[in-house]
Design a protein that fits this description.
The complex is a heterodimer of chains A (about 700) and B (about 600). By secondary structure, chain A is α+β, with helices and mostly antiparallel strands. Helices cover about 55% and strands about 15% of the residues of chain B. The two termini of chain B are about 45 Å apart. The chains are: A alpha+beta (about 700), B alpha/beta (about 600). The interface of A and B includes residues 331, 332, 629, 663 and 667 of A. Chain B: Component of the glycosylphosphatidylinositol-anchor (GPI-anchor) transamidase (GPI-T) complex that catalyzes the formation of the linkage between a proprotein and a GPI-anchor and participates in GPI anchored protein biosynthesis. Binds GPI-anchor.
Amino acid sequence: MAAHRCNIFMLVFVLCGLTYVFVRADIEDTNHVKDAESVAVDIAPKANIGASLRSTKTEDQTQAAEEERQWEAETNPADAPSDNKADHVHDTMQNLDSRPAPYAKDQTQEAAEEERQWEATEVKEADRVPDTMQTPDVPPLTPAKDQFQEELVIRPLHSGDIYASFQFRTMWDTDFLRGSKVSHYRLFPKSLGQVISKFSVRELHISFTQGYWRTMQWGQPFLPSPPGAELWVWFQDTVTDVDGAWKELTNVLSGIFCASLNFIDSTNTVQPSASFKPLGLGNVTDQRFLRYAVLPREIVCTENLTPWKKLLPCGSKAGLAVLMKSEKLFHSSFHSQALHFRPVCQDWKCKSTVWELRQTLNVVFDLHTSGQGKREWSLFKMFSRTVTEACPLASSSKVYVDVTDNPQGELFELSPTTPLLSQAVVLGDRRTYSVYDLTNQATFGQTRSLNMLLRWRAAESGDMLRPLLHGERYVAGYGLQTGEIHTLMYNNHPYRAFPVLLLDTVPWYLRLYIHTLTVTSKGRDNKPSYIHYQPSKDRLRPHLLEMLVQLPPNSVTEVTMQFERALLKWTEYTPDPNHGFYVGSSVISALVPSVVAMDTNSTRECPLFSSFFPCKEESSYFMRVYTEPLLVNLPTPDFSMPYNVICLTCTVVAVGYGSLYNLLTRTFQVEEPSPGLAKRLANIIRRLRGVPLL
Amino acid sequence: MGLLSDPNRRRALTKLLTRLNAPICVMCYLAGVAWFMGLAFEPFTLRTYMSENAMGSTMVEERFPAGERALATGREFAAHKKKVGGMPVDWLVKTMQSRGLEVFTQSFTRKLPFPDENKERYMVRGTNVYGILRAPRAPRTEALVLSAPCSEGNNNNQAVGLLLGLAQYFRSQIHWAKDIIFLVNEHDLIGMQAWLEGYHHTNTTGGDWSPLQGRGGSIQAALSLELSSDVITSLDLVLEGLNGQLPNLDLANLFYAFCQKIGVLCTIQGKLQRNDWDTTSGYSHAAQTMMLMVLKQASGRPWGDHGLFLRYHIEAASIRGINSFRQYKTDTTTIGRLLEGMYRKLNNLLERLHQSYFFYLMPSLSRFVSIGYYMPAFGLLAVILLLRVSFHLWDNRGFYFYLTPSSPGVLSILTPVVISHMTGVALYTLPILSQEMAVQHFPVSETEAVVLTAIAIYTAGLALPHNTHRLLQGEGTEEGWRVLKLVALLYLAVLLGCTALINFSLGFILALSLVPIAAFITPHTPKALSAAIMVLLSPGCTLLYCVFVFQELQETPVSLQDGWMLFLSVISQGILDHALYGSLVYPLLALLIYPCWLLLWNILFWK
């Protein structure tokens, strides 16, 4: 694979050296970002940030080299997010940088531009190989064929709620693409493996979410997802009939996850041109192989959780999965379970790829509904279970607790204490975590079970840093004829502007008036630098609108668009038509300037020489924000009285009006008495003969 | 047979219609009135029932315990209100936040077209505070609203206290599927209008408000709570909204069902329900209740803060606590339980309320008259107009009147039509436009200036026929007034028909007064008597009667003097309602009904 990509790289390099030079600057940006993050995560003494971290670390800890090793080991799972993020960054930079150009130019130039752009993309894709190779997975992955890691991150939120995020990673070292039939499964779930190899899936991302992530109260989630079900798939470029494969795949997944994914059809499937780029290795960015669909109406419940748990190597029998009891998981403010499948490098040389299956489950538990209103959380209170062992199949099994806001333990008290600390840059913010290693028996202590307890000391936690980006959406207007969709995007950064990609998918029965599209920020017209609009076709495909908009600092950008509500055919209404029709969330993808770079005047103790120039390396991170879905009422006939309306009216018209009208308008004549039998017979004979009747 | 196709028989039919026209018309009129009065008779009405399955048989247990604490919160609110001298925004924000709501504020300013003397306000500046209880695991697509106005003086403190108490109690429950918005609005309807327009990002009446920050999706239902005492004797349900719109009957049913279940006295139009329908007093009680509803609906104004929700297709009602001298008292905990039950049931809704009736009249809380029952009363009145059209279309022998060459030109018909509509436009625009001038020249306040200008223009319209005729060449002909009358009859029929479809009560009251004069007015009737009758049955005088009847029905009869003052304030309120909330009654009367009446007036003075 790597060699293949290298070839492409060389080829394209030779072919368009000029373009390469042109784009080079951007790539270097990306490389820097990537470097920085992996560095920060791995605490290698490479960059000054790393150095500073290291110094604080050495101050904190008095333990010896053994401890040090532990440090490095525990950062190992954390490199996955960095990987992930770096790819994001890469992709988005690619989009953000290369896409706008064609739209600035004339239509006539567009073809040529388009070509150039593709080349540019290729170059970058190819360029990713050395890129990824630079990602120093410092302790090289063990040559074991398959691998399983599990972790749980607990983040106390400022609102008093608590956020628990499970991540399970299964590595699958196999090559189902080369036609070799895979029949041996060790850790990787067979049901999924078969589906993936049958449909030649390169990447698969599926999420089921019940509830809406409250960005303004909770900050950023580790993995965002829209309410309902979301599915997006990159197929291999060998697939010829992508639509057919997509159709079958959704039906199969529907069976696997007990979800209504079979309702995904052409009317809610789109091919976004820029918003959803592959997250794993891959040189395919042709959107023909991408399918994206959202079912905002999907309700997630235990029936979806059980099959999801069954995909884990230990099931819910051992390890962290023991905590996932549905009666508690669904007694929460937010529940989201997801599954991501993608190719990643096997080792730092990236000679070969392995397939990564990452299962995540995010839950937010509510302070108020959990009773007593006491600010106190424990594993038992959250899950009504405690952890007693790691999954025996897992190579690493850890629980992280976010203690960033609580360095001296003045905000809350965490017991039992753990000597292990870990630092990572997560979503542009430097976070500190207490780590509980479940593979180490000492973690469980005397009681043979781990039940962490967080007890708040202060009644109020400090103010939360406002999330730099968040979005809102609503329907304006009244009446059942027209309406207006408003999408608000908030840039809360005090001085940095940044571009965002907005993706809007609107069903066909809301007829968008695209000429009414306006984008305003701070009362002024804000011209998007890139617009991709695909009009809907009735009963065939939805509207797709993608825009690249620059958000000025500290501003609200409002995107409005008017629509007309279509009158459906009477069989097209849902069984509960007066409930309204859902419009899926819009997706805002952005490279957000990071908080770390923002605090130039920090009181944090760090060497002066390290903080003069704003750290370019960590300057931005990728973020995806989903707005709330919309519920729109369409003009609905009164289905409740078909009998009255149809039957009664018809009866009245036919019997009452008809007879009266006859009575009023017809003149009647006396008919001759009916002919006798003989005459009738004679007439029949005459008719047969074709002679006039008597 | 062949009544219509056979010319001879058809002539016989038309002959019958023309000969017996007047008696048939009188019969129809009497039958219409009788039918309407019969609607209040219990055997003719239907018992209310819950149509919505989601709210019907599901079990809800009400456990709201904290009535006393809610009252304490209310007192605290009152103290802060007094200290700030208005809406205690900061205190409310802090209190709602501590109850775990997402809190937002909205500020608004509104300049009234002329000072409102009833409520003593002109430049209105205020703030709405609302907190959203986010339903767990719900995607912010649906919401319910509970609102309480922050009123002047000592009113409604208990309502705000109960609202905050309910917010705290609801927050600790897990079963909410819809976001619940707790809204405290300042300056009653003006604040509500600002909030609703902000929520839906519309601007129908040119108000000035700051945009809303937080939303909860499409609002499914709303209740507005008014409570001014610690204990109450009964709860009154107010349904009539803007332009005579009513919420779905299921909302009233829900309220009634919970009052029955919890054992709270409940009223509608402030009238308790009686069981003695077969006695005269029982019947007249029901008739009074229904007439009150008809009058309130006909006024087209919102009779509570809920009234503005209806425009946005949000089912809403106001619940008003009444404390009279009765022995039996209900405490706040019970009202809290009642509201809890109602919200739990509304929370169960899978669809918008749509199963039950939107057009109904209620002679009592447990009885209703649906549109199918009350429309014939209007139909009987409206058919008179058509009968008169046929009367003027056919002569006594059953032939059509054909327009002879000497028949009046278009001009002679068009002139009165145009001129009377111009008068209507003047009546609609001038009062507000000319208020400054009037204030300068006469010793009156702005409000009086507006009302008196309106009455002056209205009266000046009576002089029109004399002036119109000067514009016409020559004498008016016999055919002239016949054609004009045909136009007026058809015009009135269309107008009343449309009005009755939207707002039955208004249409019916207007038909009651206008149909007789429209039917029998000709230039040949005795001038003085007819003129007197016409003036007495004009829309303005109808309004005056309605004021008196309304006071009478509310058991607060007024003297002539007070009645006149009330009449003046009703006119100013009507104009204000139009300017502030977009009520359509004033423009309808000024631009359409009044010109139509002027046409009839023209016919009377046809020369």
